[in-house]
Amino acid sequence: xxxxxxxxxxxxxxxxxxxxxxxxxxxxxxxxxxxxxxxxxxxxxxxxxxxxxxxxxxxxxxxxxxxxxxxxxxxxxxxxxxxxxxxxxxxxxxxxxxxxxxxxxxxxxxxxxxxxxxxxxxxxxxxxxxxxxxxxxxxxxxxxxxxxxxxxxxxxxxxxxxxxxxxxxxxxxxxxxxxxxxxxxxxxxxxxxxxxxxxxxxxxxxxxxxxxxxxxxxxxxxxxxxxxxxxxxxxxxxxxxx
Length: 242
Fold this sequence. Notes:
The structure is a single chain. The chain is of the alpha+beta class. The protein has eleven helices and seven strands. The strands form three sheets. The protein has a three-stranded antiparallel beta sheet with strand order 3-4-5. A two-stranded antiparallel ribbon has the order 1-2. The protein is globular.
């Protein structure tokens, strides 16, 4: 499959599902799971790592992003250093880690989808991904156990580590108002946007050459990049096949 064919296929895969399911769709499209249901059981960290790798292939070491300042609403151009982020990202993250008092599991797409229907999605996600030992509670009540602060801190740190690149954020000061700005970075969504832009460009070229020469999409996409560019240049200068 050519790069452009792969772009169109990936765009269809990512745009054809709900936002929360796109990580699973990416893993399925990349052959890491036989179907979406199986992909939904894989860690979000793995989907983010795959998205990061794909973004680096398409955008290079730096990706331009835009963040709105919550104080003055100024749009800030923020370069996301994909190379630096990749250097600190585990491409094969752990799925479960035991800490004193609990077992912490990496969140999956299935966990997120289930948590979204809860009144407090964040709390619901935590409950799904943390299994407490009975000795991890101190002064437990029938309502909610009071947990050792050291255990809570260990669980939180482990959960952040297991989230991997799926828990990425940028921090900066707004040059307009001086406010501290923190914004979550969703690598799968950034990839979705990038692939959509790439697919739009591919479709525009196919449409232009098809309208001029009467070729099918398959015929246009089968052309080597350099030859396709040459035909496109000729088409824009009025060349026609008779």
